[in-house]
Amino acid sequence: MDVSTSNSVPVTTKLTRRRLDSVAGNWPIGVKVAASVVLIAAPVAQLVDRTMFDMSNGYTSLFRELSANPSAVHIGAIAGMFAPALLIGSVFVWFQLARTRSRIAASISLIAGVLAFTCLAVTTGYSFAALGLSDAHLGTQAVADALAGYSGPPAPVLFATFTITSVVCILAAAWGLWRAHAVSRASVILLVLFIVADVVEVLPFDPHFIGLAATILMSVSILTPVSRRNAAAATTIKP
């Protein structure tokens, strides 16, 4: 066989990067959209709640804000009411994305998340009680001090359970999503940065903005799960 002949047969091979191996690729478009909405709506609801529901100086500031701007407080309260359900929905989405390749991490995240955000719903109910007291013209400094000063056994148990399980939930979800290649690496890194920043409280802005950025990137991965492909590389075989 003469390898120097000018006759040649072009053979084209395609080199592809590993795609995001996400089960979301098989989801109907309606399910993808619903999952994306839940993921993004959860941090949005928390941000609205934390912005409108003024607790900067405990229940004293809440009572003051309710008198001055009741509409904003009520909007924040409604957002806070939906936040736990949206967060539990987010945990379920993470579980579905990660369970194929990281079932243990996904299961830990799901169990811890349901417990954590159930505790969050309980704290929301406590705040609703404060609103009721204010509407009944009982929003005094003494009532604010009594609400903030309550330290019976349920209070520390609730706080500790929420803090521990929320951290475990998000770290386990991040580990499961990373191993499963279910969403972009950047979104997983941002998710970890969010929970670390939320615990240490050193940022000059609300760390939930980082969580929002993470969920937006996750939603992009869900809606467009196929990764970019490399350009075709052509090789020539001469007979």
Describe the structure.
The chain has 239 residues and is mainly alpha-helical. The chain has one domain. Helices cover 69% and strands 5% of the residues. The chain has eight helices and three strands. It has a two-stranded antiparallel ribbon with strand order 1-3. The longest helix is centred in the middle third of the chain and has 33 residues. The N and C termini lie close together (7 Å). The N terminus and C terminus are likely disordered.
SS-based class:
mainly alpha
Report, as a whole number of angstroms, the end-to-end distance: 7 Å
According to DSSP, the number of beta strands is: 3
Report the radius of gyration as a whole number of Å: 25 Å
What is the chains' assembly state?
single chain
Order of helices and strands: EHEHHHHHHHE
- Distinct helical segment count: 8
Regions with pLDDT < 50 over 5+ consecutive residues?
1-6, 8-18, 227-239
Biggest beta-sheet profile: 2 strands, antiparallel
Sum up the structure in keywords.
two-stranded antiparallel ribbon, 239 residues, disordered C terminus, single chain, 3 strands, disordered N terminus
